[in-house]
Design a protein that fits this description.
25 strands; globular
Length: 484
C-alpha cells in the first residue's frame, strides 16, 4: 500500500476532495466525491443492516449471552449545554497543546505529537529543533466547537456542536423505553456527524475536525455485562474481516488499566495498520467500551468532578457548584422479576470515515493483466468487497452499432433498479475494463456479437478476470446474488 498513490487515486477518480479546495482548502475537513459518497454510504448501510436491521439472526452470532433487540435514533447535533457538563466533556474533553511564538511559524501542536509533527518552517524539522523555535508551556485546549443559539450572542446563548453521538442516546433512554416495547438487553444505534476541534488534523481523513460515527449503546443487566462486552468486541472485530480487511493488518488491543477512561471497566480498540503509519504501528478504527452505569447515573444525579466516582449530588468539600443532572429516573424495571436497576452499557463506537479509509487502503492493488493486444501490463484496481463497492456493475456495448447500445441501455436501466451501475460505450473494451477496475467495480457486462445471436452476455470478474456467458434475462439476478 502506497499512501501517496491512494490519495492521488481518490482525488483523480472522485472519491475524496479537500474541502473548499478552490480557496486553498480548510485543514481537517474533507468532501466525498461521487464515488466516495457511494462507498461511505455502503459502509454505513452494511453496518446498519448487520447491527440493527438483521441483528437477531442468532444462528450467525456465536457467543451471544441471550437474544436481544436493536433500535435506532437520529439525534440533533446541538444539545443542551448541561449535557456536556454532566458527561464530563466540558471539563475533560481536551488535549494538551503547545504554541510556537517564532516569527513565520505561530503554529500549534499537541504535546504528545511533538515527536511526529512537522514545523512549517523549511527545511522540515520537528517542533523545537530550529534555533528560532519558541515553544510555550503545554496547556489544556478544549476540543468542543462553540456556537451561539439565538440572536443576542450572550454567554447564556452559548452551546456546542456535539463531540460524539453517544450522549444523544443516553438522554433519550427513557423516551425509547416508554415509546417502544424494547426490553433489556437491547441496543440503540445512531449514525451521525460529530465535531472535534483537533489541534493537528492529519493523515488524510484519519484525524478530521468533522467526521461521522456509527455508535451503539447496548443496555444490559449488570450481572451479564461482562459477557456482553466480550460478545461485542469479538463481533465487531469479525465484521471488518468479513468485509475485506486482512486479519494480519488488524488487531484487537485491550487497554491497559492506566489507559482506561474514568468511566470504563474495560475497553478494547480495533486497530488497523494504515500505510501512513510506521511499520508495526496501528491506528484506531473502533473502540468497544464497558461503560458500566456511569452515563445513566450521571444524567440522573449530576456530578461535580468528572474524575470522581461515585458521583456527588449536592456540592463538593471545596464548595464549588455542582453540575446538576436532569433529576429524571433513568433506571429500568424488569416486568417479569419486578427488579429495578440502572443498566450497564457496552459501547461499540466506530468511525465511518476511518472505516471507509481503511477499506480504501486495503482495496488498493496493483497487478499484471493483459491489455487489448494480449500484452501484460500493470493494472491498478480497487478490490472492494462487492457489498461496499461504489458501482456494482458496468454495462459495456462492444461497439456503438448493430443494436448493441440499445440492448445495453435496456439492461443498464434494469440493473439500476437494484443498485448503482455504470454505463460506458467510449473507447476500446480493454480500456473500459481498466477504468472500472480502478474504481472497484466488481463486474463488467459486455454486450457483443453473440448477444445478438443467442441472447447471452459476457460477465467479467474484476479480481480473477474470469469471463463467463450469462443469459441476458438472468443478468440482473446473477449480479444481485453475487453482490449480496
Amino acid at each position: 500500500m502506497d499512501m501517496e498513490k491512494i490519495v492521488s487515486l481518490c482525488r483523480r477518480r472522485g472519491f475524496l476532495f479537500q474541502s473548499s479546495e478552490i480557496y486553498g482548502g480548510l485543514n481537517g475537513f474533507w468532501d466525498y466525491g461521487p464515488l466516495g459518497v457511494e462507498l461511505k454510504r455502503n459502509v454505513k448501510e452494511a453496518w446498519w443492516q448487520d447491527m440493527v436491521a438483521r441483528h437477531d439472526d442468532i444462528s450467525t452470532l456465536p457467543g451471544a449471552p441471550a437474544s436481544y433487540e436493536m433500535t435506532g435514533l437520529d439525534c440533533s447535533i446541538i444539545m443542551h449545554p448541561q449535557v456536556w457538563k454532566v458527561s464530563g466533556h466540558y471539563d475533560l474533553f481536551s488535549d494538551r497543546m503547545v504554541d510556537c511564538r517564532a516569527d513565520g511559524c505561530k503554529s500549534r501542536f499537541r504535546e504528545d505529537h511533538l515527536g511526529t509533527s512537522e514545523c512549517p518552517l523549511k527545511p522540515s524539522k520537528k517542533p523545537g529543533e530550529f534555533k528560532a523555535c519558541d515553544l510555550t508551556e503545554a496547556r489544556e485546549f478544549n476540543l468542543m466547537f462553540k456556537t451561539i443559539i439565538g440572536a443576542m450572542g450572550t454567554k447564556d446563548d452559548e452551546a456546542f456542536l456535539r463531540p460524539e453521538t453517544a450522549q444523544g442516546i443516553f438522554v433519550n433512554f427513557k423516551n425509547v423505553c416508554d415509546s417502544t416495547r424494547v426490553k433489556v438487553p437491547f441496543g440503540i444505534a445512531q449514525v451521525g456527524k460529530s465535531f472535534r476541534n483537533e489541534i493537528t488534523p492529519r493523515n488524510f481523513t484519519f484525524r478530521s475536525r468533522e467526521f461521522e460515527q456509527m455508535e451503539i449503546e447496548f443496555f444490559c443487566h449488570p450481572k451479564t455485562s461482562k459477557e456482553w462486552y466480550q460478545f461485542w468486541r469479538n463481533r465487531r472485530f469479525q465484521w471488518y474481516i468479513d468485509h475485506g480487511l486482512a486479519e494480519g493488518r488488524l488487531q484487537l488491543r485491550d487497554h491497559d488499566p492506566d489507559e482506561l477512561s474514568h468511566y470504563s471497566t474495560g475497553t478494547a480498540d480495533i486497530e488497523y495498520a494504515f500505510p501512513f503509519l510506521a511499520e508495526g504501528e496501528f491506528g484506531e478504527l473502533e473502540g468497544i467500551a464497558h461503560r458500566g452505569d456511569f452515563d445513566l447515573r450521571s444524567h440522573m444525579e449530576g456530578k461535580l468532578d468528572p474524575k470522581s466516582c461515585p458521583l456527588e449530588v449536592e456540592k463538593g468539600e471545596d464548595g464549588k457548584p455542582l453540575y446538576k443532572g436532569s433529576g429524571r429516573d433513568l433506571t429500568y424495571r424488569d416486568d417479569q422479576t419486578n427488579e429495578r436497576f440502572t443498566p450497564h452499557v457496552i459501547e461499540p463506537s466506530a468511525g465511518a470515515d476511518r472505516a471507509t479509509l481503511a477499506f480504501l487502503c486495503e482495496a488498493y492493488t496493483e497487478d499484471e493483466a493483459p491489455d487489448d493486444k494480449g500484452n501484460m501490463k500493470t493494472r491498478t484496481l480497487m478490490k472492494f468487497h462487492p457489498r461496499l463497492a461504489p458501482m456494482k456493475a458496468a454495462v459495456l456495448p462492444l461497439v456503438k452499432k448493430d443494436g448493441m447500445p440499445e440492448i445495453a441501455r435496456e439492461l443498464y436501466r434494469a440493473l439500476k433498479q437494484k443498485f448503482p451501475v455504470f454505463y460506458d460505450e467510449k473507447g476500446a473494451i480493454g480500456r473500459r475494463y481498466r477504468r472500472q477496475d480502478e474504481i472497484g467495480t466488481p463486474y463488467c457486462i459486455t454486450i457483443d456479437g453473440d448477444t445478438l445471436k443467442d441472447k447471452t452476455v459476457t460477465l467479467r470478474d474484476r479480481d480473477s478476470l474470469e469471463q463467463i456467458r450469462v443469459k441476458l434475462d438472468d443478468v440482473v439476478a446473477e449480479v444481485e446474488s453475487r453482490v449480496r
